[in-house]
Amino acid sequence: MPLHDYLPSLAVAWTAYFIIVVSPGPATLALAATSMTSGRAAGLSLALGVYTGSFLWACLTSAGLAAILTAYAGMIAALKIVGGLYLLWLAWKSFRSATQADAVHLAGLADRRLTRRQLYFRGLAIHLTNPKAIFAWLSMISIGIPPGAPASIMAIFIGGCLLIGCASFAGLAILFSTGPVRRGYTRARRFIDGFVAVFFAAVGVKMLAMRL
Predict the structure, then answer these.
(1) Among 17, 45, 83, 95, whose Cα sits 20 to 30 Å from the Cα of 128?
(2) What 3-state DSSP class applies to 210?
(3) For all residues of the chain together, what is the average pLDDT?
(4) Angle at 182 (CA atoms; ends 128, 37), nearest 5 degrees
(5) How sure is the predictor about 112, in pLDDT bands with cuts at 50, 70 and 90?
(6) pLDDT reported for residue 39
(7) Which of 86, 56, 119 lies closest to 78 in space, CA to CA?
(8) Which residues contact 86 (CB under 8 A, 6 or more apart)?
(9) Rounded distance, CA 78 to CA 60, Å?
(10) How many CB atoms neighbour CB 177 within 10 A?
(11) What is the mean pLDDT of residues 116-143?
């Protein structure tokens, strides 16, 4: 089949991927919080880690390894536990930030400033320890890649997702690091940090309780 015959299904899968990328979730919320608190460079570093995690899951899924992982419940269960506990740890950090006075928060933020490497690996850890990423990629590939499609169509699909992901993650980092957004965060810091804490805690608990 020529390429244009695959374009409708690819377009649907690419649209689904974009919605998944920009919709609220652990990665996007961590990206927003990092960009607002630590600036554009920090947000882009974390975004690069998330982007790398998405690329790795894409490669694993296209190679069939993700399907193998789903066949071994023990491996997915371990990943689920690690991811859930990691999100609960992030929730605790956000909760502590929400309860601190502004002066204490700023002083602590300066003392705990993460390097770009640390932010990169935080983004990578958030995405790689989320077992839902496996199922998301499996579902998108089932939508975008009809049975019997050549490997070139898979490469085009993943390439399109990578372009969408790069533009979306970088765009979110830039958006949330702009002056108006950062000033708004300063005014509503405790409310935002509290919301982040509740969100991470809820997703972490849900991940730990999730049946596979």
Answers:
(1) 95
(2) coil
(3) 78
(4) 45
(5) low
(6) 86
(7) 86
(8) 125, 126, 129, 204
(9) 18
(10) 22
(11) 80
Indicate the DSSP class of residue 129: T
Q: How many CB atoms lie within 10 A of CB 118?
A: 14
Domain locations in the chain?
Answer: 3-209
What band does 107 get if pLDDT is binned at 50, 70 and 90?
Answer: very low
Do residues 70 and 76 lie in contact, with contact meaning Cβ atoms separated by under 8 Å?
yes
Exposed, middle or buried, 74 (CB in 10 Å: 0-12/13-18/19+)? Answer: exposed
CA distances (Å), origin 58, targets 43, 65, 136, 142: 22, 10, 10, 13
Q: In 127-141, which positions are buried (b, 16+ CB within 10 angstroms) versus exposed (e)?
A: bbbbbbbbebbbebb
198 closest CA partner among 41, 85, 120, 92? 92
- For residue 5, with 0-12 CB atoms within 10 Å meaning exposed, 13-18 middle and 19 or more buried, which class applies? exposed
- Encoded tokens for 164: 């969408």
Closest Cα partner for 57 from 34, 89, 83, 85? 83
Judge whether 35 and 176 are in contact, CB under 8 Å.
Answer: yes
Does residue 45 have a pLDDT over 90?
yes
CB 39 within 8 A of CB 114: no
Q: What pLDDT score was predicted for residue 101? A: 62
Task: Write down the residue that tokens 């490669």 correspond to.
Answer: 59
Per residue, the 3-state secondary structure of 2-23, as one string, reads CHHHHHHHHHHHHHHHHHHHHC
> What is the pLDDT at residue 106?
45
